[in-house]
């Protein structure tokens, strides 16, 4: 158990010392068993394991609905040390689950030390039914994911340490691949709602949108709050509609622009019902902006293809180049699928590219007012370099309005 590495007692050299019993296990589909100490929900849960390299913002990560169906291992060892608070939640309904199944940590979670802390991470995980394990060699696990790709696994927590390892191995090996899974119904809204909250402004808390120049319909595939806040801040009146809304429902709301949200699962599986709607909206030349899953689905709607990545991109310091300006921005990422730029049709250009691996990070149509990015310009958590994309969307709506008026 790696939590005790460096502790002489853990070397087994001292008389009377007893190896602590594992109270949690992470069992990978290939049969690898990692032992550690349980935290969070006393339960067991299946998921795809991905690693996130962000050093801050674990609460936003754990509440990002795009992680539904996944177990997150943090490469940063000290997670939980600032507790959790009321404000930094990314699910729109603060009490709703983001669908994250589990959390894998190196160090044990300490008492929170931060003026905003309202709860200990352990209690918060329990309340949200997220299973946790600490004391894991997360560097070795990350190296394994880099080598072999993101594995399926079962994470289990039992204070009595009573695990049927063979049964867990079988369960992990039988889990379906993330490719082919539509997980949007697990996390997306089923009712329409308005959004007028703007970002957090110290010391006043969240603000309210003062004026709205543009009417935006946001299609919710698992949207993050800070995206809606930044749309409101950019002067948009935001109406959020369920992922199952038809083009007719959306057009009836008379939008100046349509926003395609982030979300979990395989875009190709989700696209089955979302893509025809997006296609129809594009044909009406409605200004469109997509983020992450929304980007992937815009690509699918114009005839492009997406593919599963080996280890994906999950972190808060990825360099991306905006090819339209040449500028490099440091961005937040969370995706396990990517658009294959070779499949983009002639009426689309690649606008952004990852400087880590050259993968596609953005596109724009040349014959219709639509663009999208793979990364997370809402920066929650993460750097704010890409906030300009919300302005770009507003400018696109202004240009289209001016064209119509002329
Ligand atoms: N953040 C997102 O929207 C993720 C999109 C998609 N589920 C992926 O993993 O690639």
Automatic annotation (TrEMBL):
Keywords: Amino-acid biosynthesis, Arginine biosynthesis, ATP-binding, Glutamine amidotransferase, Ligase, Nucleotide-binding, Pyrimidine biosynthesis
Transmembrane feature ranges: none
A Pfam cross-reference name: CPSase_sm_chain
The protein's annotated pathway: Amino-acid biosynthesis; L-arginine biosynthesis; carbamoyl phosphate from bicarbonate: step 1/1; Pyrimidine metabolism; UMP biosynthesis via de novo pathway; (S)-dihydroorotate from bicarbonate: step 1/3
Domain Carbamoyl-phosphate synthase small subunit N-terminal: residue ranges: 22-156
Chain spans, region CPSase: 1-206
Catalytic activity of the protein: L-glutamine + H2O = L-glutamate + NH4(+); hydrogencarbonate + L-glutamine + 2 ATP + H2O = carbamoyl phosphate + L-glutamate + 2 ADP + phosphate + 2 H(+)
Record: active site: 292 (nucleophile), 376, 378
Residues annotated as binding L-glutamine: 66, 263, 265, 293, 296, 334, 336-337
Classification via CDD domains: GATase1_CPSase
EC number: 6.3.5.5
Family membership noted in the UniProt record: Belongs to the CarA family.
Quaternary structure note: Composed of two chains; the small (or glutamine) chain promotes the hydrolysis of glutamine to ammonia, which is used by the large (or ammonia) chain to synthesize carbamoyl phosphate. Tetramer of heterodimers (alpha,beta)4.
UniProt name for this protein: Carbamoyl phosphate synthase small chain
Organism: Bosea lupini
């Amino acid at each position: 158990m790696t939590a005790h590495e460096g502790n002489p007692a853990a070397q087994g050299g001292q008389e009377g010392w007893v190896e602590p019993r594992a109270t949690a296990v992470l069992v990978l589909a290939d049969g690898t068993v990692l032992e550690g100490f349980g935290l969070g929900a006393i339960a067991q849960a299946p998921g795809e394991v991905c690693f996130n390299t962000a050093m801050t913002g674990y609460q936003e990560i754990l509440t990002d609905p795009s992680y539904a169906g996944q177990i997150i291992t943090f490469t940063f060892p000290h997670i939980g040390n600032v507790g959790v608070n009321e404000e930094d939640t990314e699910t729109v309904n603060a009490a709703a689950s983001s669908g994250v199944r589990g959390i894998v940590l190196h160090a044990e979670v300490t008492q929170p030390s931060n003026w905003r802390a309202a709860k200990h991470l352990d209690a918060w995980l329990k309340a949200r039914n997220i299973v946790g394990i600490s004391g894991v060699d997360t560097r070795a696990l990350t190296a394994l994911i880099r080598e072999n790709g993101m594995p399926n696994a079962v994470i289990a927590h039992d204070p009595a340490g009573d695990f049927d390892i063979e049964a867990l191995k079988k369960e992990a090996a039988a889990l379906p691949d993330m490719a082919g899974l539509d997980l949007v119904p697990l996390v997306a809204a089923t009712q329409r709602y308005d959004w007028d909250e703007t970002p957090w402004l110290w010391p006043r808390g969240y603000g309210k949108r003062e004026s709205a120049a543009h009417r935006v319909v946001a299609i919710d595939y698992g949207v993050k709050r800070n995206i809606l806040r930044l749309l409101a801040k950019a002067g948009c009146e935001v109406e959020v509609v369920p992922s199952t809304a038809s083009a007719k429902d959306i057009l009836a709301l008379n939008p100046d622009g349509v926003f395609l949200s982030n979300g979990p699962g395989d875009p190709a599986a989700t696209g089955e019902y979302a893509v025809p709607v997006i296609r129809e909206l594009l044909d009406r030349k409605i200004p469109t902006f997509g983020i992450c899953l929304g980007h992937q689905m815009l690509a699918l709607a114009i005839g492009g293809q997406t593919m599963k990545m080996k280890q994906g991109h999950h972190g808060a310091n990825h360099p991306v180049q905006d090819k339209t300006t040449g500028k490099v921005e440091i961005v937040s990422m969370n995706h396990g699928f990517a658009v294959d730029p070779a499949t983009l049709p002639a009426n689309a250009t690649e606008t952004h590219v990852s400087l880590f691996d050259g993968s596609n990070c953005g596109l724009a149509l040349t014959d219709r007012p639509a663009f999208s990015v793979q990364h997370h310009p809402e920066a929650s958590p993460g750097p704010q370099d890409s906030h300009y994309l919300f302005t770009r969307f507003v400018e696109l709506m202004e240009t289209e309005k001016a064209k119509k008026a002329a």
